[in-house]
Fold each of these.
Amino acid sequence: MLRGRAFKFGDNISTDDITPGRWFHLRSNLPELAKHLLEDVNPDFVSQVKPGDFIVAGRNFGLGSSREHAAVIIKMAGVSAIVAKSVARIFFRNAINVGLPVLICDSDKIEDGDELEVDLKGGKVKNVTTGSELTSGKFPEVMLSIIDEGGLIPYIKKHKDFDIS
Amino acid sequence: MGKTLAEKILSQNSGSDVRAGDIVIAKVDLAFLQDGTAPLALRQLAASGLEQISNPKRLVFFIDHASPSPTRELSNDHALVRDFAAKNGAQLCDIGEGICHQIVVESYANPGEVIVGADSHTVTAGALGAFATGMGSSDVAMAIALGRTWLRVPESFKVVVGGSFKEGVYAKDLSLHLIGVIGADGANYKALEFCGPTIDNMNMSGRFTLANMTVEAGAKVGLFPSDDSTRRYLESRGRGDRFHPLGPDPDADYEQIIEIDVTALEPTVSMPHAVDNVALAKDLKGEKIQQVFIGTCTNGRLEDMAIVAKMLKGRKRHPATRLIIAPASREVLMAAMNAGYITDFLEAGATVLPPGCGPCVGIHQGVLGDGERCLSTANRNFRGRMGNPQSFIYLGSPATAAATAIAGEITDPRELL
């Protein structure tokens, strides 16, 4: 069970919002790059987020570039999962691949600052502040296996190949 | 029930009969990475313990995003990539060669192939009938080691295009219009499959533009049939032997059918800060523009350069509007030079950049100032995309861009034809 506070974002948060292109030269220095996470959308986010907290977004979170650094630095900031109405395709795969869980549900029922409890296995998001509970959509089996292993690299280290039979 | 193009390619690739929603392990025919995504991929590859590269002849590294390098950190990233390519016998396209997606279509992609690239605009090669899709560094790292990747077979939207473009209206206008109709996430996880008489008559340059932009509607892949235009293009590139006709079955099952008649289209512009925020160029008259950028994997081809040269010839850029032009590849630059276009650009007051991504990604070569507005022929206008969150990006066709550079404000190119 994951527990933390919700940091609320709107629709269409792009990878340029998450990790702006002007910090391109820091991509091989992830701790430095992570200091700029989401700074153009919420300049206080990096200083306020605590390990275990959640990014709660609207539609199409992570649209745009394939830069996996976006998912990596969200995880480095301590965010335990993304809760959104929908997530752009490449970002979704990247998040799962770096061991950052994503839950798809009606995030309108969550306000900034709400306390959440997330049951990843059951796909449940409980809003402790309001008492409401949301259910996440289902993932393909292969993604669940990758999540179980903590990401694609540990998955391949263990299985040596894609094992989806 | 017949198959969509996506179902057909992934069935042939995996040697099984697959349908939308199925998961396949696909053989990867071509994998590529660029300087922004390769260093992380190489670190992930090292972490995985997999050391062998499955097919170095079909693994290409591109140094196109920060090219030539503007900083010491990026020079070191470039060195890492060059060193890995040399040690492993992989292909390297170094600075000055051009943008990955342009070189992939010029020199590598073929109909029916599965292509993965660590860049979202990998979808460009769908114009040649390849299942080409963008992924992150970890996915592509595993694909280059194993020679395989997992894919969910996408549902397809059929985009049927009819009618004839009016003068001054191009594939880019169709693309922006289409994204306005579908929305920035309207095709999330889906394949967009193009067909219809207008597509049959469209040259490959227009098809590349359309395929390139499909990711801006969220699509996993943008597919075109492999037909006579494809054959002629491949023959012109010395790959005629790789041509085979390929199309969807007539009774394929589509999740949605979108019909567009281009005859009614007018020059179209995406307004800040979303690609689906579209308007007509004529309705934005008076909007002052400080910088025009022509190039990118969307519109940096010779056909685009020809349109721009024709409009700029004998004219000057507006004194308050900077004009930056970056041909998409070395070949495009050489051909544009031989055709006299580069002279036309320089005489009009343009700054010509070396082949590469240029200012599109916000690293260098034309970062915008606070409050400045740019009209670009690129594919994205997200806030901060061109290096400054306090600036504003409009997207349009090369003709709209050239007309805007001359007038100093957003201008319908038909005014200057």
Amino acid sequence: MHNRITIVENILSANDRIAAENNSLLDKEKVFSLNIMASPGAGKTSLIEHTIKLLSPEFRIAVIDGDIATSFDADRAAAAGASAVQINTGGDCHLDAVMIQNALQNIDLKDTDLLIVENVGNLICPASFQLGTHKNILIASIPEGDDKPYKYPSMYRGIQALVLNKMDLLPYITFDLARFYKGVEILNPGIITFPTSCHTKEGLEPWIEWIRQQLIKHYGSKC
Amino acid sequence: MHELSVTENILKIALRHANENNAKIINDIYLVIGDLSSIVDDAVEFYWNIVAENTIAKDARLHFKRIQAILQCQECLAEYQLSQKELSCPKCGSDQVRIVSGDEFYLEAIEIDR
């Protein structure tokens, strides 16, 4: 006998469940966490390096680094002064909540104030997979072009802060800032934006100050 | 792309519900997928033949209901399809717009034999 069973269940609900568990664990241990997403070469590792250097005198920082292969990025984070855990996704195009759950077991959360997750360089897949971090951050960059909000709306909608990196290249590249910001504003009204250059270090201070405020807002002083 | 893990999730959800309903076989699987979820139907079909092997879902037909990404202007209420060139309202030019569909990504139903 034929029977139709109505289900209506989100295909990624299993991931969302684990993400919620990660979030509870991070809350319990009073660790504020960022999921840093970007296309390859936008400056994720450089921005994370600078962030570690500027914040590590005040806060204990851990980094989870997602990469297809290699541990170059985790090595750079460790050299900058964070404790770093590498996840090699073995070709997978994004991190998911289970990978983070496993990686969290290798981090001393009691000895961590800020957790930075460096996602795999990709503007499509990471947008679909929540990790359980407190804020999703996108690093866009000038050489990528001003059309990216229009081409990757899901990524631009799912973030709580946007960094526009490599601002020092603006004089050399055709990039319409107004068109870029218009797309961002339509997709994600009122989102906070940080124009930066990891090369000249311009604009880094407001970004650092924002993280500092978020840390204080979430947990006050943990130490 | 991540169709493999997506296909595994689809199978898991379908098998769990089939099991709860004492199914002997799953004949059909109905998926609802919005255009913003960037999943390729053919890739899911391809992986299905691999992941569903040796399960009661191995011969199930996959049905994809595609939902277009639609924007709605919050000022003049015009509805229009998302394009990669322009997001503003094509009728009144407003930037006060909202995406009203296209995010869907769920398993709607299965058909089983008991």
